[in-house]
Design a protein that fits this description.
The protein is α+β, with helices and mostly antiparallel strands. It contains ten helices and 22 strands. Strand 16 and strand 17 form a beta hairpin. The model has no long low-confidence stretch (mean pLDDT 83).
Amino acid sequence: MRRSPNILWFFLIALTLIIGWGLGPDFYDALRSRTWTTVPCRILRSHVFEEPSNYGMRYVLRVEYAYPFAGRDYRSTRFGTGQNQDTMDVARAGQAAVRFAEGKEAVCFVNPQYPSEAVLERGNLWGGLFLLGPLLIIGLMGQEQIFAWFGKRRRNRRAVLSPPISELNDALGIDGRYVLFGVMGLVMGTLLLGMSVARPLSDWRRTRSWMEADATILHSELISRSGIHGPEYSLEVVFEYEVNGKRYRSDKAGLGFSIEAPVADMSDWVAAHPAGARMRCFVNPQDPTEAVLDRHLRLEWISPALGLLMMGFGLFLFAGFRRTWRLRKQLAGDVLAAYWQGKVREGTATFRVFPPVWVPALGCLAAALICAPPGIWSLSKFVRALSHGQTDLINLLYGIFALAGVGYFICLGWKYLVQVFKPRPILEVTPAALQVGRPFEVHWNFSGRAPRGWMRLWLDGVEEARVRRLIHAHYGSISEEKTERFTFKSILLAEVQADPARAGRADGRVPAETMHSFKGVKGGVTWQIRIEFGDRKTEKLEHKFPITVTPDRR
């Protein structure tokens, strides 16, 4: 078992080397071309060729151009840098053919050290982000060791500099782990919402003003290939259209066929747009090489839902950062004393069950109603694909997941709904803030009927602390901070074994040699009044009401 992490690290390093071997040369060539000299050139020959590939038809621009440099004339046939820069889709190939048409004046980029090396387009540097993927995984797997190193470095720095005591408190420090996951949640949520919602909406709004033109479908097919989780499908279409006497080609079917698009919808689209069919397309008047066949907006639910969850997770963590920052700025003097002591009330305190049990029951019902439509929609798309002899695993998995959520919320809501018909206690405590060593009294009443079996009333003292636990797993070590609670004092105030009265009274006293209420950032001492009751000996309903216990103010 101890060797498993070593094996995992070996495969991860091997994956990093493979990705670096595949993408590294192209990224290096693209980065190197950023220092090349810009030189005017003239296109001598230009033609787009079709080449089949594992992912459908790809297009290559075969071009030859001449350019002067340092008093000499040169010729080149290179379109872009790297091995994978020349292949493109039909829309990009059409745009390149227009920009670099035969006989047209253009601009090329020349290596000043080797003038015979030139390109028309410099490589894209965004591909270098994929090189950071394995490094990100390595960082996540080794995060505990990384943060432990920073913590040790901080402690060594304190030992040398001897800072003031006010700066030695780590309770109000921002945990770097939460910052890491908060940033990841915000970034991934923003990217998912941008790709699945913002970009389709922007394209839909932009295509509203596009002009119509006659188009002919040249190729329309639903491509199937083997993937990690079974068959994967993609829509491949090529159509031709004419604008101002010039013919163009495009492969954009619409504004929403993403990786999670239902297979049944893509199959129906192919059936409605067979090869050879003539129909209307929509063309960008500013750039005739850009066109779509269908400009109806299509938004799926999976990516937006994941994006909202990730963004909500990130915002939740950053809200905690802001609260910690405010506490660090404000907790001083009387404010600090009021914070650790808690709110001290005078008179009589009344406690009711809050929120009422019907509120979470309605919340669970609303959550079930939210999850049900996308679950049913996804499963219906899977059934339609299955009727066509295809398998839509993405919508099957997400449909099952959504309906499982419906079942969970219904069961949870039922538990709350059953409690609506159970007795609900109302407690009145005098004084509202108890004092160590001083007596107090509790009056209880029940909303609705009284319990028919038994009842017990307790005063509990609970110590709680946020503790970081280190978890060892096959993928490395990870720590988790949880709140642990320990009941150090339980005082029985009242006990009724059979047929408790609807209302009653109990007297008690807080022990003199005990700890009062204390609220800290990472721990504290809390007191609560706990009432237990049931209609049968085997039934137990419990409600807890927090109460403040102060030092003896005499």
